[in-house]
Write a structure and sequence with these properties.
Blueprint lengths: L21 H30 L6 E8 L2 E7 L1 H12 L5
Antiparallel strand pairs: 1-2
């Protein structure tokens, strides 16, 4: 859309035309999207921090030999390692 008052720059414009370049508008939209994604990641991190609270642990059930299941109590660094391994497909 072009300026309706035929101004050459924003300072001369009297018609309230938006002089923001499309690239800047796209970047602002991306920033807002990334802020929303970051907020969601922070919420996930807070949930995990609550689950990983130092005095809390979890019984993790793992497949060891085919159908044989093994339960073990994990907390802290051990819990982090088990989650990381499962996410990489090593703990299935």
């Amino acid at each position: 859309m072009t300026c309706k008052c035929f101004a050459r720059c924003e300072a001369d414009c009297v018609c309230d035309h938006d002089w923001t370049p499309p690239a800047v508008i796209a970047l602002r939209e991306e920033v807002e999207r990334l802020r929303a994604e970051l907020a969601a990641c922070r919420e996930d991190a807070e949930r995990y921090r609550w689950l990983r609270y130092p005095r809390m642990g979890w019984d993790i059930v793992r497949k060891t030999d085919g159908e044989l299941l093994c339960a073990e109590y994990l907390d802290g660094i051990e819990l982090d390692a088990a989650i990381d391994a499962a996410r990489k497909g090593e703990g299935e």
